[in-house]
Specification:
GO terms for molecular function: ATP binding; ligase activity; metal ion binding. This is ATPase. Helices cover 33% and strands 26% of the residues. It has 400 residues and is of the alpha+beta class. The strands form 3 sheets. It has an 8-stranded antiparallel β-sheet with strand order 13-12-9-10-11-14-16-15, sandwiched between helices. Strands 3-2-1-4 form a 4-stranded parallel β-sheet. The chain has a 4-stranded antiparallel β-sheet with strand order 5-8-6-7, sandwiched between helices. Helix 1 packs across helix 11. The longest helix has 18 residues.
Length: 400
């Protein structure tokens, strides 16, 4: 990589994640600077790939901007990258202040704000569950007249299933709206339609999806968060009808939202009644919950690493080439464990390609040429984990 001019990347994350992005970015011949929280300084970061680290105690946008401006005097930053959902808007503001290439605040809202997502998708002809903002009383009542419950209350800016609450009647809806008081404008409600929830993990270059892999949540994040279940996901059978439909709809969403380059994690629901697909939400980053590892074992594509290569190639105006994709199937099962260090030696099938190494957790990924075999193993492991290892804690309620 010595023939390339080193570029200066500032990776911003207020969570411990993105190690493969950092390592790949460094391997491309770049200088990598990390901006993170002071309380994360003792986490296992890939220090060998980090040129310098800057810490913040509590994020104050003005203070962070001034701090970066000070560093800019001696370091000519070429790219700011948000490695976590909660940092997308913060980094968009930094890009706009320093006139840095990449996603600005307006586009970033489509990948963070659930209301902005739905409004934009609807205007672009993409199926979304019927929804309304909680701005105007008359609109809320009109929605309740038109759309039968149950509904889901969703915070506009939380990630995953955090803060989501099911509402079963108009009376309950207004009770919640009244409790929210001046915070109601930060929420929306949408029709709760039972169905299978899917996710598509993809890479985008020059406005086009160059890689995507569709998977199905066997137990949705909402069910796991609110019911204390076991988290599971598995890649869809490649070439199946649902696989093709999901990948097409994902490409439509990326185009509609103006995603130019990077990684995305997008969720959809297939109605149990009609089979119709609806867009739920998206994000301009790699999916969490070890889904990136599952996708990598199925496809051979490391989403974090390729995202870094895409950013680097885009900056250098070089052509990005996706590595060869393999077409296996994979699945993941993860649960809280009642044991601090669970003994997983009894899980010894040859298809196991990864085991979770995290205290009070148990999890594994399996990979096979057969999607049926993946499902068979996941079902077996889920029963064993639920019987012998599983523990649960109540979900934090951030909705009220």
């Amino acid at each position: 990589m010595s023939n390339k001019r080193p570029l200066n990347f500032l990776c911003v994350t207020t969570y411990h994640k993105g190690a493969d992005f950092i390592k790949s970015c460094k391997a491309e011949g770049n200088n990598v600077y990390l901006l993170t929280k002071k309380q994360l300084e003792h986490e296992v970061w890939p220090w060998e790939a980090i040129d310098d680290v800057f810490y913040v105690d509590n994020w104050n946008q003005s203070d962070v901007t001034k701090g970066i401006a000070y560093k800019f005097r001696t370091i000519k930053f070429d790219r700011f990258v948000a490695l976590d959902d909660f940092d997308v808007e913060k980094v968009a503001l930094l890009r706009e202040h320093f006139r840095m290439p990449g996603m600005g605040r307006t586009t970033s809202h489509y990948f963070r704000d659930k209301l902005a997502m739905r409004t934009k998708a609807l205007s672009e002809g993409i199926n979304v569950p019927e929804f309304t903002a909680l701005f105007h009383d008359v609109d809320i009542n009109a929605y309740a007249d038109r759309v039968s419950p149950p509904w889901l209350l969703k915070p506009r800016l939380e990630a995953s299933a955090t803060g989501i609450r099911k509402i079963n009647s108009r009376e309950e809806l207004w009770q919640i709206v009244n409790v929210l008081k001046d915070e109601r404008d930060n929420y929306l409600i949408e029709k709760f339609a039972p169905g299978d929830v899917y996710h598509v993990d993809s890479l985008i270059v020059d406005g086009k999806v160059v890689f995507s892999r569709a998977s199905k949540y066997l137990d949705t994040p909402f069910e796991v968060a609110h019911g204390g279940g076991v988290f599971r996901s598995a890649t869809c059978e490649i070439g199946s009808k649902i696989d093709k439909a999901l990948n097409k709809m994902n490409a439509d969403v990326m185009k509609a939202f103006g995603m130019q380059f990077g990684a995305s994690h997008t969720e959809f629901i297939a109605s149990k009644e009609t089979g119709e697909l609806f867009f739920l939400e998206t994000s301009s980053r790699v999916g969490g919950a070890n889904l990136a590892e599952m996708v990598e074992f199925a496809s051979g594509i490391n989403l974090w690493g390729e995202w870094a290569r895409i950013e680097s190639a885009s900056l250098r105006k070089e052509t990005y080439t996706l590595p060869k994709v393999k077409n296996q199937h994979a699945g993941i099962v993860v649960s809280l464990s009642k044991f601090e260090n669970p003994d997983t030696s009894s899980f010894n099938d040859s298809e196991i390609v990864w085991k979770m190494d995290k205290k009070w957790h148990i999890g594994m990924i399996v990979a096979s040429d057969s999607s049926d075999r993946v499902m068979e193993l996941l079902d077996n492991y889920t029963q064993r984990i639920a019987s012998d290892f599983h523990a649960s804690i109540p979900a934090p309620d951030k909705s009220l």
